[in-house]
Amino acid sequence: MLDENDFNFGEEIENCEELIEMAYEAFKDDSSQGYLKEDEFIEPVGFLSERLDRFTEMDGYKGPYFLHNATGWNSCISKIFKSDLGITPHETALFLKTDNPHDIALRLTNDLECGLSYREKSHKKHEWALKGVSHLGMPGFLNSDAFLHRHRDDFCDFRSKNFGPGRRVLMEVAFLYQ
After folding, report:
1. CB–CB of 130/108 below 8 Å?
2. Whole-angstrom Cα distance, residue 54 to residue 157?
């Protein structure tokens, strides 16, 4: 996850391709600061803009996995929250309306503490969701170090701070090796 406020200073770009290029350049600058080995590179495979509410699938590699069939910002976040984090549709709808993860964090913490998450075998998803809440408030999105050091299929947050809703972008990338 990126935010236009980190790389697009004051310009309201309506052209999705231009926005993708700016986001990718910002992401490359952040992610290649000594973290990628000589034979590694990253390639964007999917892009979703909250402000434009538009998904773009890039050519190349195999296409997006997590953003596959994304139809808009809210539907994509809802899908991630439900399938990957075990967050209920009601909690997701409230989060999308308020951008406040408090209710989600409270319920997940309670479910973990009372053992319900373990009985339902959803404890790993719930623990994962809480890690994102403690970072910049987006459940399930870890800080950028997780991506840069682990090279796993994680949801990571590259924003410098939580600017709030409106200008966030999701960019799915593939790690490729030469």
Report:
1. yes
2. 19
Question: Are the beta carbons of 68 and 46 closer than 8 angstroms?
Answer: yes
Phi/psi at 36 (nearest 5 deg)?
-85, 140
Residues counted in the chain: 178
Domain boundaries, the chain: 2-8+15-177
Query: Strands 54-57, 142-143: parallel, antiparallel or unpaired by DSSP?
Result: unpaired
Among 144, 162, 165, 123, CA closest to 26:
144
How sure is the predictor about 150, in pLDDT bands with cuts at 50, 70 and 90?
A: low
User: For 105-140, how does the pLDDT look when each residue is reduced to its tens digit (9 = 90+)?
Assistant: 999 999 999 998 888 888 888 998 898 888 888 999
Say how far apart CA 147 and CA 35 lie, in whole Å.
10
Rounded to two decimals, what is the model's pTM?
A: 0.85
HSE, CB side, 13 Å, CA atoms: give it for residue 30: 22
pLDDT score at 40:
76
Distances from the Cα of 128 to the Cαs of 112, 158, 170, in angstroms?
12, 17, 18
Residue 25: count other Cβ atoms within 10 Å of its Cβ.
Answer: 11
Evaluated on CA atoms 44, 70, 48, 165, the torsion sign reads negative
- Residue for token pair 């980190």: 6
